[in-house]
Amino acid sequence: MATETTTDRRTSAASADAAARANGQAPLLDVRNLKTYFFTEDGVMPAVDGVTFSLRRGGTLGILGESGCGKSVTSLSIMRLVPQPPGRIVGGEVIFEGEDLLRKKESEMRRIRGKEIAMIFQEPMTSLNPVFTVGNQIMEAIMLHQRVSKAEARRQAIEMLRLVGIPSPERRVDDYPHQMSGGMRQRVMIAMALSCNPKLLIADEPTTALDVTIQAQILDLMRDLQRRLGTAVMLITHNMGVIAELVEHVVVMYAGKIVESADVRSIFAMPRHPYTVGLLESVPKLHETRQRLKAIEGVVPSPYNMPKGCRFHPRCELAREICKQLEPPMMQVGPTQRVACWQYTNFEPVEMPAPGEAVPLWKAAAPGAGTAGGPATATRGGQGV
């Protein structure tokens, strides 16, 4: 019997993607088994290790997790902005508009960045150039991608500043970043990112270091602009309130891997993974009175010394022996909910595969087994929106 090659699988997947796009069903962004490692003198650091998710056109995806879980590196990998050296994307695919961004030349990526995919970086004061006016920095992106005159670019920059709610944009367009407040600088970053009407906006901690009033204004602004412009948004944050306010689907990351994926209602109503439960329990609630909030014991493991098996097991109160030996597969535990945790399957370990073999280390639970959310089924797929 003929063996399917990697090329055959890619050709088949490309044909399926083309058919889905023709029917208007293909996601805008489809990240498949993405792996980004950093090669340093201390060893190899798997910052992103097999991440899979998708984002529909006009949709909103939230990536949630503690600092050091791989959220920002995931976004930089999508944009092909991982510093080389020491970083390198060692595997996977980033399918955008049906094309793999990881196979494109750097010159092609420069045309995509800013025009098709834009990014709001974590700290606007360090992302904006202090020696140029905010207007010049917005105009640069417009002239680069739209090929318009300087006068037209200035007019569009003023309109973008007005769109994001900056008062007197005709005057503020000539201000330098240090002349603006943190909230204003964040609005400038949003204006710059949206100046070329991108199809995908990646927002990395867009409300960092802002007070709660300004945070609410920025979130309202992003929601309004998304509705008006139809831009898909990928929001990276560790703030559960921001997730609840803005996104449709949530991906929870821990130590470079996705541990849970679900629609936002399911995440808050019935979190499945112990890590997700811990994140939610660490947030104060208005209807509860507690002497002390619950904390997740321990810290995120060193990327140079990841624990064997489930990477969360050293901090997990429910860890069993299997958790310390084998990495859990992604289990379907609800209509839109998937979780990588051994407590959601009846497993039977099998022999370890030979190098290069794609043999699963588990057997799926029998029909009817699993949780109240439905039968637990072992899957190879990722997390879709």
UniProtKB/TrEMBL annotation:
Source organism superkingdom: Bacteria
Matching SUPFAM superfamilies: P-loop containing nucleoside triphosphate hydrolases
Keyword list, A-Z: ATP-binding, Cell membrane, Membrane, Nucleotide-binding, Transport
Organism field: Geochorda subterranea
Limits of the ABC transporter domain: 29-280
GO molecular function, one term: ATP binding
PROSITE patterns per UniProt: ABC_TRANSPORTER_1, ABC_TRANSPORTER_2
Subcellular location: Cell membrane
The keyword Magnesium belongs to this UniProt entry's keyword annotation: no
CDD domains to which the protein is assigned, alphabetical: ABC_NikE_OppD_transporters
PANTHER family from the UniProt entry: DIPEPTIDE TRANSPORT ATP-BINDING PROTEIN DPPD, OLIGOPEPTIDE TRANSPORT ATP-BINDING PROTEIN APPD
Family, similarity comment: Belongs to the ABC transporter superfamily.
Name of the protein described by the UniProt record: ABC transporter ATP-binding protein
Topology term for the membrane: Peripheral membrane protein
